[in-house]
Amino acid sequence: MHIREMVFKRKLDCVSVAFDYPNVPRGPRSCRRKILNKRTDEDDTKMCAMDLLASLAGKILEEGQSSSASSNAFEGNNHENFGKEIKTEREDHHNPLKSESSDQGNSVSRPTYENTSDKCVVNSFSFPDSDGILERTPMSDPHKKIHGETGDAHVNTGYEQGEATHGVRDGGLTTNTCNLEDETALGVQFPKPVCVDGDDLKSPSFVNMTPNGSLARHGNHTNLGRDDDEKLYSYHKCSNKFKSYRSPTIRRVRKSKYWKQVPKDFGHYRADVGRKVLHRKRKSCYGYNGWLRETIYKRRRSPDRSSVVTSDGGLSNGSVSKLPQNRDSVKLSIKSFRIPELFIEVPETATVGSLKRTVMEAVSVLLSGGIRVGVLVHGKKVRDDKRTLSQTGISCEENLSNLGFTLEPGPSKVPIPLCSEDPVVVTPTEPTSLCERSAASPTLDSGIPIADDVINSGNVMDNNLELVPYQSEISVDDPSSESRALVPLPALEVKALAIVPLNQKHKRTELAQRRTRRPFSVTEVEALVQAVEELGTGRWRDVKLRAFENADHRTYVDLKDKWKTLVHTASITPQQRRGEPVPQELLDRVLRAYGYWSQHQGKHHARGAPKDPDMNRGRALESV
DNA sequence: ATTAGGG
DNA sequence: CCCTAAT
Questions:
Q1: pLDDT digits (tens, 9 = 90+) for A161-181
Q2: Which stretches are tagged as biased composition: Basic and acidic residues (predicted)?
Q3: What's the rounded Cα separation, in Å, for the pair A127 and A6?
Q4: Which of the four, A7, A47, A407, A617, has the lowest number of CB atoms within 10 Å?
């Protein structure tokens, strides 16, 4: 059976950030902010996606590669670590420099956001191997071109319109087709052609990054996990339209003042960054693999009345099952899936590593949105899920070459509505499946597929990527369409979709999204109070560094604002307070610190904490 | 890049 | 949380 044809369409707006701080672009604060916000959301989304995927992957992937435990530390238990962090900090509070240094050294659980974004257009990537390992497309691939000269040059032509074309093109046709009776190969590939050259999209050509499509899983993982930390980030000067995004982490790194203070920590920091990145990557990979495996697994054992074909559960490409079969059964070997197009924008200066990561991000988002499989018979989409295979024309007697599969954005999550202004295709989405975040703010801006936010994995994800599913697909499950099991796939739609993505971002970019609300936990409040007690109320940056350095989603402005509200909260009656109640003890400290620092207008900051012992009542002032 | 404040 | 103005 040949499979392929899934088309996910999405656009990625990527802004590249550089870890190379000297080159980090600076932009208007407002812009940065927006971007930042954006990123956060994105991260959240990713996070969720990742979690989801990770769960799917389950233990299957565990052995794949050992992952650094430390990198996970932060994840999932922000608070715990947070507390840890704080403790550590306390040991040397009053000495910002020192504490910072020590932090670096300890680098306990310092999540680093991977920054991905580069503005460029990547049209295709391939997912090879059966294990679901994502193979990144090397830039060197002749079929792919990335242009970075213009921020807006992404043109997409509807090369994907013809399903048939794909099949032929991917050269995998032959391999994709297999005999019904002989085996079940579960190799899955996501070959996809894409060429973007300048503003033109060349005819698609199949790019098989993974020639054999059967790379060892381990090997892949390893690769994924390790590529170029340092090179991961590339810098690209963004046009005004594309505000550069940089993660908080990045920001810290480039902070000149900060670095002047503790230059020696740079190395550590970088290393840490690399680690984090690594972690993230792994995560992504696993997630992806997990998903793939899951998919495959299901497919294998799928059918209602069908027997499980696989015994080994192994997903390696080319695995063959020799289980006895019924004459009526249909065996399929899926060598590749076609996924929706992914539009990625990356500057020429981007590194291959960043490109890879960007693609990974795109894929992750795609997957996080839910995926479903579409079946094509003779190029026509089979909409009626109730039909039997034989009724549909799929049987051992049939030439399975007529059978195709597509991966489509699933109903679980939906693609984001495109900019209203755009005339083109708007993806009808199913509100019900939208994540909270997305539902709340469908408008995405610059679509920056950034690394997942390791923190707050619980937050809803939202992605900047745009999934542009085939419109025709959207109603696939519609029961009412039973009458016509086979529905021609409207090429035009596809075409239209192909075009859409590229222009949207600009407008969208302008539309900043509000960051997701992230109420401070008691733990955080405690940390904040502690820091303010020591540093005063006018040194938010220091507070941030001291107590929230790992909480990249908390900016110093956030801390300042929180403090503001805390003071207010402490001033009102308990009945008037809302949200998660803050222990009175903390509120008392807030008022105490507030009063203290109001009088000691920062005169003692050098010293840090107020001398007034009562201020930290019950708390050792060891470092004061 | 930070800080301070209003919205 | 966001936005602006002023540093």
A1: 222 223 222 323 222 322 232
A2: 89-101, 609-624
A3: 12
A4: A617
Provide, in whole angstroms, the distance separating residue A343's CA from nucleotide C1's C1'.
31
For chain A, counts of helices (H) and of strands (E)? 20, 9
Window A229-268, strand B contacts by Cβ < 7 Å: 251, 254-258
Q: How far apart are CA A266 and CA A253, in angstroms?
A: 8
Which region among A134-138, A351-355, A535-539 has the lowest average model confidence (pLDDT)?
A: A134-138
Nucleotide nearest to A517 (CA to C1'): C1
The integer distance in angstroms from the CA atom of A517 to the C1' atom of B7 is 17
* A255 closest-nt by C1' vs CA: B1
Structure tokens at A94: 């009053």
Q: Beta carbon of A605 within 7 Å of strand B?
A: no
Q: Are residues A493 and A555 in the same domain?
A: no
Q: Name the nt closest to A29 by C-alpha to C1'.
A: B1
Measured from the CB, is A561 under 7 Å from any atom of strand B?
yes
**Within a domain: A169:** yes
Task: Answer yes or no: is A600 CB < 7 A from strand B.
Answer: no
Q: Is 60 exceeded by the pLDDT of residue A384? A: yes
Is residue A94, in this structure, part of any structural domain at all? no
- Please report which confidence band the pLDDT of residue A184 belongs to, taking 50, 70 and 90 as the band edges: very low
Between CA A483 and CA A490, with CA A489 as vertex, the angle to 5 degrees is: 115
Q: Indicate if A557 and A504 belong to the same structural domain.
A: no
**Nearest nucleotide by C1' from A516 CA?**
C1
Does A416 share its domain with A284? Answer: yes
The residue range of the domain holding A14 is 10-75+111-510
pLDDT-derived band at A136 (thresholds 50, 70, 90) equals very low
- Nearest-CA neighbor of A582 among A518, A516, A523? A523
- Compute the C-alpha angle A535/A541/A543, nearest 5°: 40
**CATH number of A593's domain:** 1.10.246.220
Which positions of chain B lie under 7 Å from any protein Cβ?
Answer: 1-7
Residue nearest to nucleotide C4 (CA to C1'): A30
**Edge-to-edge strands, sheet with A486-488:** A403-409, A371-377, A380-382, A486-488
How many domains are there within chain A?
Answer: 2
Please report residues contacting nucleic strand C, using a CB cutoff of 7 A: A 29-30, 33-34, 37, 512, 514-518, 553, 557-558, 561-562, 564-565
A275 and A340 co-located in one domain: yes
pLDDT at A347 over 60: yes
Based on the fold, state whether residues A563 and A503 are members of the same structural domain.
no
Q: What pLDDT does A531 receive?
A: 94
Measured distance between the N- and C-terminal CA atoms of chain A, rounded to whole angstroms: 72
* Mean pLDDT value of segment A118-146: 33
Among residues A480, A510, A540, the one where a domain terminates is: A510
Residue A105 included in any domain = no
Q: Specify the pLDDT at position A500.
A: 32
Q: Are residues A467 and A601 in the same domain?
A: no
Residue A397 resides in a domain: yes
* pLDDT band, residue A160 (cuts 50/70/90): very low
Residue A542 confidence (pLDDT) above 90: yes
